[in-house]
Amino acid sequence: xxxxxxxxxxxxxxxxxxxxxxxxxxxxxxxxxxxxxxxxxxxxxxxxxxxxxxxxxxxxxxxxxxxxxxxxxxxxxxxxxxxxxxxxxxxxxxxxxxxxxxxxxxxxxxxxx
Amino acid sequence: xxxxxxxxxxxxxxxxxxxxxxxxxxxxxxxxxxxxxxxxxxxxxxxxxxxxxxxxxxxxxxxxxxxxxxxxxxxxxxxxxxxxxxxxxxxxxxxxxxxxxxxxxxxxxxxxxx
Lengths: 113, 114
Hints:
The complex is a heterodimer. By secondary structure, chain A is an all-beta fold. Chain A is built from no helices and ten strands. Chain A has strands spanning 9-13, 18-23, 32-38, 45-50, 55-56, 61-64, 70-75, 84-93, 99-101, 107-112. Helix content of chain B is 0%, strand content 57%. Chain B has no helices and eleven strands. Chain B is globular and about 40 Å long.
């Protein structure tokens, strides 16, 4: 399985931008890069995903390196509600119509008021 | 709109007792369905996935089994629970359109085996 590497934890201040890094040096050409986040005692929530180009949505931006071996999730203005564990995941086809999301340990983001 | 329901929210069961967790999805058809488990302080581990009724794939050998009796119903079961089965169990669904689509998770069941 293609794996990702993320820092165990990061800290940010409210209202400031946050850049969460992810390394995926063994990514294949068909793997999508997904980001999810999980608040305590809740199920993960989709944040953003991309394949090759940078992506923006209402929650965040995803910057993908040209060689696709790393990516960065950007929260433009962190709020206290953004404090969560952020997972960077490679999504790949696993036979037929199925694809799998294999989670690592993620990055615990702490946002200081 | 699509919704996913998972119950119960919390469960305390004695060792050796059976288990049945249910997950249903509304507002979509032929979804891919997934069961994950999260042990305390750890990441999510994929347990089972299903691409259709009666089609179950197991990711890791364990004391659990899964079934999909209806298109939008996914059940996680055990005949005899072990202490190591304790954890946070999450059901998820996605459209069968490949890895470029997002997955949606339920709110989870916190299982404590005592």
